[in-house]
Design a protein that fits this description.
This protein is α/β, with parallel strands linked by helices. It has 3 domains: about 5-115, 3-Layer(aba) Sandwich (Rossmann fold), CATH 3.40.50; about 135-370, tm_1862 like domain (pyruvate-formate lyase- activating enzyme), CATH 3.80.30.20; about 380-445, OB fold (Dihydrolipoamide Acetyltransferase, E2P), CATH 2.40.50.140. The chain contains 12 helices and 20 strands. The protein has helices spanning about 15-30, 55-70, 85-90, 105-115, 155-160, 165-180, 215-220, 240-250, 265-270, 275-290, 310-320, 350-370; strands at about 5-10, 35, 45-50, 75-80, 95, 135-140, 145, 165, 185-190, 205, 210, 230, 255, 295-300, 325-330, 380-385, 395-400, 410-415, 425-435, 440-445. It has a 5-stranded parallel beta sheet with strand order 2-1-3-4-5, with helices on both faces. Strands 16-17-18-20-19 form a 5-stranded mixed β-barrel. Strands 6-9-12 form a 3-stranded parallel beta sheet. Helix 11 packs parallel to helix 12 (about 350-370). It is globular, with a radius of gyration of 23 Å.
Length: about 450
């Protein structure tokens, strides 16, 4: 081999899986491997799979098949790797299958298939590692696994129980990312609010102080870096109320990603989710009273086994009262090993689709109304792309306000008098809105 060994990489699933991919890629680059854009150009392909839903497993199997067809040498890792028989049953000729977070096993399989050729005077890895996101934002994973036992979810089976990182380790990574030019830290885990429970909130030394491994303490410390800090996968435990004060003080973004999943007490009990919806609505109102700029996004499941029309009507009513800013919706899929499959009569697929459509139409009305209130205001927008609609060229682009997470929320389309730069934060006057996006002009930098 006249060139360093080349690896192609496919990363599927959620941001937590993307962070796993970043860690594997960083280790590979540190050992002298190069990354190839196409499977055909690589000496080996790696597929990081998602196994959460049957549809995600089908997508993962398709990706594995494509990699085998184009390359022939394939290593499989990720959540679906926790059930290797599903992979080897379909593709017995894959080189190796490993589960999520098994970085050493992935590296060992790569070494067996394509030994490294390390050049210590050439192979330089930046301190922040290799990132698969744009330079101006990065995912910061604070824990692995989950202690919840929601009946529709097999993540604890795939990824294990909660394992939190010491606070100082998280802060050191955040410091390296900010030093490398990251302007937005997206805090992720399976259950961000539960961070540190397994460590009994133990302290670790950071900058001459002892920082507890606790959600509020970590968020407060991250807020001192002077960049956008966005909190994802926050369960509405009582101590979340303390985070609102940090938002009011500008330490973290006024944004909460809370997976409510449903509103009917009956459905929530079968899901094993908190069922105190009256209290939750009161807390949402209090949060918005304390922090008027707060954006709340959530996800919901329709068609859960046993869900009645009354249950679904309660969900629509709850949405109307809560007026969440951003909402995603999933039609329930039976997943092998999920307890929910046996908790009620299956909802017919046509009914699921009809309820999905009704929920999204209802949410579209809510979103349109809430975005319309922002017309005429000035907002800070981080620039993600240049030359996008409303027009080509360096003076047009698209970005995100403090209310918008990448890939899942809305977009701010903008125009500027001077050329824009990806990653800069501009002040934009909002001129119009539609159901999901905003449009405006840059008025300051």
């Amino acid at each position: 081999m006249n060139h360093p060994p080349r690896i192609s990489f496919v990363s599927l699933g959620c941001p937590k899986a993307l962070v796993d991919s970043e860690r594997i890629v960083t280790r590979l680059r540190a050992e002298g491997y190069e990354l190839a854009r196409d499977h055909a150009e690589a000496d080996l392909a790696i597929v990081n799979t998602c196994g959460f839903l049957d549809s995600a497993q089908a997508e993962s199997l398709d990706a594995i098949g494509a990699a085998l067809a184009e390359n022939g040498k394939v290593i499989v890792t990720g959540c679906m790797g926790a059930e290797p028989e599903k992979i080897t049953g379909a593709y017995p000729n894959v080189l190796a299958v490993t589960g999520p977070q098994q970085y050493e096993s992935v590296l060992a399989a790569v070494h067996r298939a394509v030994p490294p050729r390390h050049e210590p005077y050439v192979d330089l890895i930046p301190p922040e590692g290799i990132k698969l996101t744009p330079r101006h934002y990065a995912y910061l994973k604070i824990s692995e696994g989950c202690n919840n036992r929601c009946t529709f979810c097999i993540i604890p089976k795939l990824r294990g129980g909660l394992v939190s990182r010491p606070a100082a380790d998280v802060l050191r990574e955040a410091e390296r990312l900010v030093a490398a030019g990251v302007k937005e830290l997206l805090v992720i885990s399976q259950d961000t609010s539960a961070y540190g429970v397994d460590l009994k909130y133990a302290t670790s030394p950071w900058k001459g102080e002892a920082v507890r491994a606790k959600f509020i303490d970590l968020a407060r410390a991250l807020g001192e870096f002077g960049v956008w800090v966005r909190l994802h996968y926050v369960y509405p435990y009582p101590h979340v109320d303390e985070i609102i004060r940090l938002m009011v003080d500008g330490k973290v973004l006024p944004y909460l990603d809370i997976p409510f999943q449903h509103a009917s007490p009956c459905v929530l009990r079968r899901m094993r989710r908190p069922a105190m919806q009256e209290e939750t609505l009161a807390r949402v109102r209090q949060w918005r009273s304390d922090c008027p700029d707060l954006t709340i996004r959530s996800t919901f499941i329709v068609g859960f086994p046993g869900e009645t029309e009354e249950d679904f009507s309660l969900l629509l009513e709850w949405l109307g009262e809560a007026e969440l800013d951003r909402v995603g919706c999933f039609r329930y899929e039976p997943v092998a090993g999920a307890a929910a499959n046996d908790l009620g009569a299956p909802v017919p697929e046509p009914v699921k689709r009809e309820r999905y459509d009704r929920l999204m139409r209802r949410q579209q009305e809510i979103s349109r109304k809430r975005l319309k209130r922002r017309v005429g205001k000035r907002e800070h927008v981080i620039i993600d792309e240049i030359g996008a609609a409303p027009g080509p060229g360096p003076r047009a682009g698209k970005g995100r306000s403090k209310s918008d997470a990448p890939q899942i929320d809305g977009t701010v389309f903008l125009e500027s008098r001077r050329p824009l730069r990806v990653g800069e934060i501009a002040t934009v006057k909002i001129e119009r809105a539609d159901a999901y996006d905003l449009y405006g002009k840059v008025v300051g930098y």
